[in-house]
Decarboxylase NovR (Methylobacterium phyllosphaerae), 287 residues
Amino acid sequence: MLDDHSHDAPVALDLPDDDAGRKRTSIYQPEQAGLIFPEIPEFANHAEAREYRKKHLVAACRAFAMHGFDYGFAGHLTIRDPERPELYWTNPMCVHFSQVRMSNLILADHKGRVVEGRHAINRAGFVLHAAVHDEYPEVMAMCHAHTTYGTAWCATGRPLDMISQDAAAFYNSHAVIGASAGAVAVEKESGLSVAQQIGRNRGVLHQNHGLLTCSHHSIDDAAFWFIALERACKQQLLVEASGIKPQLLSEKTARYSREHVGSDYIGWLHFQTLYNHIAETQPDMFA
Ligand SMILES: [Zn+2]
């Protein structure tokens, strides 16, 4: 391990309530009540919660397709089942991200057994995700894919520099993992050593391999920060390639930015833009 920034404690922001007297936890929540704005849903039962999580997992896969994150069968996204948290929903092996739908998701246990669904599970995916979900009960969701810019930056073995407000979302919440770098994670021991470091960070740059994100909140949050992490790696590579020394954010500014635009809630909120677009333009996702 070359670098390890463990999660800083979240900061409670002191914000005025909205017009209707409802508590606000983010500066993005409108003070003016009655406007169209995404709300975190509340569920009457496990079935409703499960339906929501599955839909948002499918949309996350489709968002990965839109961003060109596919590489053959590589890449896996997981979200815990609300009723049986020892089981998790994931995308089926050898199905393109763009063709993942409600009816082909699979539900698996930590031994890699498919307990619901017809498709096989990605072995590398189950080893890594099961190890993280096992070690960190608070981790709700995880994403991994072999992306172009993320994998390229991971080869440097360096963490991200704080070159932008967007990169600051990962300030003190991402790590570079050198352990079992470049080895395909199909063996249990490899999954465990990497898992112990993944669970403590929002994003992980696994050297000579690729990016991973995990969330204590939702698949929406894990997927959005994955997209953001890939984009941050691309921007870092562009700056490096220019040969011009970048101006970096101060620690104070990076921390301030992360507190305001880098929370789990903000990850979830960003993803609603993608969810609504995909749900409207790709209705086959619900089939
Ligand atoms: Zn991989």
